[in-house]
Amino acid sequence: MTDLVITGGTLVDGTGAPGRPADIGVTAGRVDAVAAPGTLTGRRLDAAGLVVCPGFIDLHSHADFSITGHPGADTAVTQGVTTLVTGNCGFSPFPVGDLDELRSRRRSCRPSSTGPGPTRPATPTRSTPPGPR
Ligand SMILES: [Zn+2]
Fold first, then answer.
1. pLDDT in tens, 20-75
2. How many Cα atoms are found within 13 Å in the side-chain-facing hemisphere of 72?
């Protein structure tokens, strides 16, 4: 018996195989079984009409500046992101000597509540390609 059975969803397992109906067993916070629907026992979580899949990898995040303030990364996790890759733009607070130094750097990256903030147009601009509409 597993702690939790995610049932009724379509499993897309990340291997490239087509999605299929499956029960997913979770024990102690880890997936420990994938089985035909209706074969696992335990507390059930109904995922009918939903896709059940491994977490997504955000290949371009700047979370290295915010992760110390939000170590659970709730905004990423609630979107299905379970892995954040950082340091893509040629800057990163790492390596850092100590966590207080990193927290200090994070604060310095926040827009000022009294200053002008980041420079950007007041409204988004979009170029329209020539041609018929
Ligand atoms: Zn970037």
1. 999 999 999 999 999 999 999 999 999 999 999 999 999 998 888 788 788 889 99
2. 4
Domain 4-52 CATH superfamily? Urease, subunit C, domain 1 (2.30.40.10)
Distance from the alpha carbon of residue 16 to the mean position of ligand 1, in angstroms: 28
Q: Is 96 exposed, middle or buried (CB count within 10 Å of its CB: 0-12, 13-18, 19+)? A: middle
CB–CB of 11/19 below 8 Å? yes
Cα–Cα distances (Å) from 71 to 56, 75, 103, 125, in that order, read: 18, 11, 12, 34
pLDDT of 81-125, one tens digit each? 999 998 888 877 767 677 777 667 665 555 444 433 343 333 443
**CA 88 to centroid of ligand 1, rounded, Å:** 6
Domain residue spans of the chain: 4-52, 56-109
CA of 107 to the centre of ligand 1 (A): 18
* pTM tops 0.90: no
